[in-house]
Design brief:
Elements (H helix, E strand, L loop, with lengths): L1 H16 L5 E4 L7 H11 L7 E4 L7 H8 L6 E6 L4 E6 L6 H4 L3
Length: 105
């Protein structure tokens, strides 16, 4: 609830300022139920700003939520951490894109 309140306040401030500011949101849906997740993805994220960066886990945006959001996405990247090399590799695509998405709903 606090996170949604903070996002709402920032959205209101951005709209009232009239300035085009990018929005960065880190794991926004971790504590939302399914109906609020769907509203957040279909109503807020596409309209939040001209540039929205969402940092999510592999379970936050999947199946139907990914399908709702995908048409509004310009670029997708996945950060894969390797224990062996103790480094992070940046890969194009999202957790659910391609073959991995077809098996989920």
């Amino acid at each position: 609830e606090k996170q949604m309140l903070a996002i709402s306040l920032l959205w209101g401030l951005a709209h009232s300022s009239g300035r085009m500011l990018p929005v960065i949101i880190d794991t926004p849906m971790g504590r939302l139920d399914s109906s609020h997740r769907q509203n957040f993805v279909s109503r807020y994220l596409p309209e939040a700003s001209h540039q929205v960066i969402v940092l999510s886990t592999d379970t936050e945006i999947n199946g139907e939520l990914y399908k709702l959001l995908h048409e509004h996405v310009g670029q997708e990247y996945r950060l894969d951490y390797s224990d062996q090399s103790q480094s992070t590799i940046i890969k194009k695509g999202y957790f659910q894109s391609g073959d991995r998405m077809e098996g989920q709903s």
